Amino acid sequence: MKMNFKSLIVTIFIIQTTLSPFVLAQQLPQSKGQEGAPPSSQATEQASSEAQQFATFVNSGDFREAGSLLQSSEKPYSLLLATACQGQAEYLSGFINKVEQTNGNGQVIEGVTVKGSLTEKENVYGERNFDYDKIQDAIFNTEGTPESKRCLHFFNVAALSEYNKYFDSRSKDNECGLSLDFSERTPKLTRDPSKKTAKCDVDYGGKPLYQFLEEQMQRFADVVEKLNKKNDDARTKAQAEVAPREKTEAAIGQCSGNDCSPHKGLDYPDTVKVINKECCDVFRDNWEVLGFSTVKGAKPTNRICNDMFDKDNDEGYCEGRFCSKTLGECLVNFFGAFAKNAYSSFIDSFDVVGWISQLAVLAKEIKSGDLYETAAKIVKGMFGFDEKHMRCLNRKSQSQYYCQMFGKFSGSSAGFAAGMGGMIGGIKGMAGGIKTFAKTKSLKNVSFIKEPIKQAVKTGYKSAVVATVWPYFMGRGMMSATVKATKTAWTYPPYYFSKVTGGKGVRSVVADSASRVASAVESIRPGAAGGRSAGTTAGSGAVGASGAGSTASGGAASGASASSAAPAATSSSGSGAVGASGAGSTASGGAASGASASSAAPAAMSPTEEILRASRIVEKPGPIYTGSAGKLLSKTEQNLNAAKAKLEQLKQHQNSLSEGVLVGPNGKLNFKNDAQKYAEFNTVTKQVKEVEGFIQTLSKQADDLKKEIQAKKVNNRIGTGVGIGASMNALPAPEENKKDPTKQKDDGRTLAPATQGVGTGLPPKSTPNPAGGSSAPATAPAPEPAPAAAGETSDSASPSGVQRSGDANEDPGP
Amino acid sequence: MRAWKYVLVFGLTIFSFVYVNANMNKKFSYKAPTNFVVETNYFPSFFPTMYNYNGVERITVLIPPEIKSKIGVPKTKTGELNPSFIQGKLNFNEQFGIEDWKMDNYKFSQTPHGERLELVGSYTSYAGVKTTFIEHHYFGKSRMQSIQLFYPSLAQGKVVEQAKLSLQTFSPNVN
To answer: Which of A225, A246, A267 is the last residue of a domain?
Structure first.
C-alpha cells in the first residue's frame, strides 16, 4: 500500500478542494466592504458560518499536514480516531452505508448485507461504502463544534482518497484504461483505449466491468464536483455576509489565533474596531521594525491605526490616475535614488557590480509592469512586508507604505517630500546599503524586515535619515513658526522677569487678566500637554515671541498650576515648564498640579493675594503670562501702588498692636499677658515681610518691563528664530485640535500622510535640537508662552500622530 | 526690447535641452531598430535610457548609466565568470522578488570598446511573463557600461532578431 506519485497529487487535490472554503474565509478582510452580493440560501449561510468557524480552529498548514499523513498511513481511520476524531468512531460509522453483499463477479447475494468497518480491513480499498452526500451535508448544513467539523473534514479527505485509490487500482488491475484526471478543479474521467484490454470486458453484476467502473468513477467525479460547488457557495455567502454590515460573526474568520470569542456578537463597526485593534497590535509591536518610525519606543495611536486599517478611510485619497501617478513617481524616485548613488565609485567587489547590473531589470519592470504589483513585489522582497501585514492596510495606507519605504531606503523622506533633501546623507546610506545588499546571500528567517535593511541602518542609513528628516522638519517648522511667531509677537509682546523667593528661583509672571489664565487652564489637558504635541506650534508662537528658549506647554502648565498658593505647586509649575520643552510627562504633571491646585486654594487670603485681587490679578508671582507692554507696566505699577498702600496699612496695624506692649531687654516686644495679641502681631509682621518682598518683586518687574519695552523689537526677532527651532521639535497636537494630515485642500490632492516620512513626526535622536529649551534648567529665567497663544495654536501642530511611549496620550503602548 | 530677453532665455533653454539630448545620443552611439521609440531622458548619466518597440510585443532595450568601476572584468583566472558577479545578481533578485531568474549562457569577448561580457538568460516578470534578457557589459579601466535587451520569451521573428543585432551597434567609450 505504498503511496505513488499520482496518489500524492490526488490527495493534494482533494485536500485543496476540501480546504478551499477555509482559505477563502481567512481572506475575508479583503472582501470586506463589498456590496450587492446575491442572497443565498439558509443552508449555504449556515455552511459559510461553519466554514468560518472551522477556519478559526484549524489553519491550512495543519490541514495539509494531516491530509498527507492520512494518505500515507495504512490505517488512516485509526489515526483519525486517535487524533482529530477521538471518541467519534460511532458517529463516523454512521457515514458508511449498509450495502448488499456481492460476490467476486459483482452479483448480489440476496439477504446478505454488510457494512464496512472503519478499523477492520482498513488497508483494503473499497471495504467501506461511504455516503458522501451525508458527509457533505454534515459539513455544510449542520451545526457542530469546531472540533467535530475538523474531524469531518479530515474524514472526508480519507474517504475520498480511499475510493480514488480503489477505482484506480481496479482499473489498472483489470486493464481498463480508465482514470481520473485531477489537473483541473473538477476531476475528469479519461479513457485511454490503448490501455484497455479484453480483461476489462468481463461481466460484473450483469454488465461489463468497464461500464461498471466507468459509472462508478464518473459518480466519484460528480461527488467531488458537488463538493466544489458547495465550497463555492460557502465562499460566496461568506463574502456576502460581511458586505451588508449586518450583525454577523463572519468577521471571526479574520481574527488571528484560535481565540476569536471577543468577536462574537459584535456589530459590524465594533467588529471592524476589533480587527483594527488586532492589526494595530501587530503593527504596534513592530512599529519601529517595520520602518514607520526611527524613534525608539514610538507607537501608533488608535487614530493612526484607524486611518491605516479602516477600509472606509480609503476614499478620496488614492484612486485612479492620481494614485497610480503617485505610486509611479515613488517607484521612479526609488529607482532614481538607487541609480544616482549606485553609479558612483564605491564599487569594490564583483557582487556589487552584479547587483547593480540587475537594476536594469528593476527599471524595466517599473516602467512596464503593473505599479501595484511591482510595488508589492519590491516591498515584500525588500522588507518582508507580506500579505499578512499588507492585508491590514487599506489601499491608501498601502500606497503610502510603498512610497514611504521606497523613499526611506532611497534616502528621500517619502516620495512627496523627496525634494526636501537628504541626499548627502542618502548617498552615504545608500552606498552602505547597496554594499550590504549585494553581499547578503541569504535572506531567510527574517520575520518582518529583512536583514539587509538592518545592516543598511548600521552602515549609514541613520545619516540618511537625519539628513532627510531634518530639512523636512526645518521647512515645516519655519513655515508654521514664522507665521505664528509673527502673529503672536504682533498681538502679545511677552515680557518676563524673575523673582527670587526664599533662595529658590521661580519663574515669575504677571498676568494681565484672569480670563487669560483661565483660558490657559482650559487649554491644557494632560493629553495636550503630554509631550511636545501641545508645545509645538504653541512654542513657535508664544515662545518665539517671548524671545528665549522655552516651549508653550510648559508655560501653560505653569499657568495652570499657578492658581495654587501652595509652594509645592509653584515648584511643580517650574518643573512643568522645563518638562514641556523636552519631556512631556513632566509637562503634563505641571498641568495636573495646576488643575488640582486651583481647586485646593486656601480660604483665607494673604496680603499679597488681597493686593492682586484688588488689582484684578489672581496669581502669585511664579508662572507666566503675556500682554502688551503698556498694559503690563501700568498694571504692575498699579499693583505696586496697591502693595505700598497695603504695606502702609499693615504697618499702621502693627504699630497699633505694639502700643502698650513692653519692650524686653533683647529689644523684642513682650506679649506675656496677651497671647492673642502676640499671635496677631506675628501674623501682621509676616504679612509686612511678604508685602515688602512683593513690592520688591513688583519694582523689579516694573524695571524689567521698562527694559523690555526698549528691547521689544530685538526680542521679537530672537523669539521668532527660537520659535522656529522649537517648532521643529514637533510632536502631534492633541487629536481633538489637530487637523487630519491626510485631508487635503479643495483640489483633491493630499498632503503627506501621517505615517509618511522618516521619523513620522519626531526627529531622530541625532538630530540637533535647535530649540535649546529642553536642556534649560528649571530656574533659568526663560520666558514662557502666552496661554492664549498655546491654546490657539495647538491646532496647527505637527501632523505626525506618532507618540512616544510613556506620554500621557490615549494609547501609550507598551 | 523686453520681449527679446524672454526670447533669448527661451532659446537658451531649448538649446540646452537639444544639446543634452544630442550628447546623449552621441554618447551611446546606439542605433535602435526601426519601430523602436526612445523615451525622453535628459539625464542619461543618472537615469537609464529605454528604447521600446512600438508594437504589440513588449521589447525593450535599456541602457543604464555608466558605472565608475576600477575592479575590472568579473572573470576568474581560468577565464570563467566570477561567481560573485552572479551571486550579486541572485541577491538582487531575491531582494526584489524577481523570480525564476536563470542564466543560460555567457561569453567574454574583446571589442574595440573594452572587454565585453555577454549574458543570456530569462526570468519571470512581475506580470508573470517569462522574459528573455541579453546583457552586454563593457568593462574598461575605470568605467563600466551596459546595454540590455528584454523581450518575452515567446516573441520571435524579425523584430527580435533586429533588436538582438542592434546591440552590436552599441559602442560605449569606457576606455
So the answer is: A246
Contact B146 A360 (CB under 8 A): yes
Nearest to B47 among A336, A348, A441 (CB): A336
Residue B148 with chain A: CB contacts under 8 Å: 360-361, 364
Nearest to A594 by CA among A509, A702, A687: A509
Query: What Rg do the C-alpha atoms of chain A give, in angstroms?
Result: 39
Q: In this structure, is residue A625 part of a structural domain? A: no
Instruction: Answer whether A176's CB lies under 8 Å from A210's CB.
Output: yes
Domain enclosing residue A41, as ranges: 5-246
Do A357 and B95 lie within an 8 Å CB cutoff?
no
* Residue whose entry in the numeric block shows the C-alpha cell 460528480: A222
Q: Does A5 touch chain B (CB under 8 A)?
A: no
Question: Into how many domains does chain A fold?
Answer: 2
Residues ≥6 apart with Cβ < 8 Å to A150: A54, A57, A58, A84
A196-209 average pLDDT score: 85
Tens-digit pLDDT profile for residues A339-372: 655 555 467 778 888 888 888 888 888 777 666 6
> Which value does ipTM take for this structure?
0.86
Distance, CA of A510 to CA of A783 (rounded, Å):
12
Q: Which residues contact B50 (CB under 8 A, 6 or more apart)?
A: A363, A364, A367, B38, B39, B41, B60, B61, B62, B63
3-class DSSP string for A164-198: HHHHHHHHHHCCCCEEEECCCCCCEEEECHHHCCH
pLDDT by residue (tens digit) across A365-404? Answer: 877 766 667 777 777 666 666 666 666 777 667 766 776 6
Q: What is the CATH number of the domain that holds B105?
A: 3.40.1000.10
Residue of A nearest to B128 (CA): A369
Mean pLDDT of B145-169: 90
- Does A452 contact B at CB distance below 8 Å? yes
d(CA A254, CA A263): 9
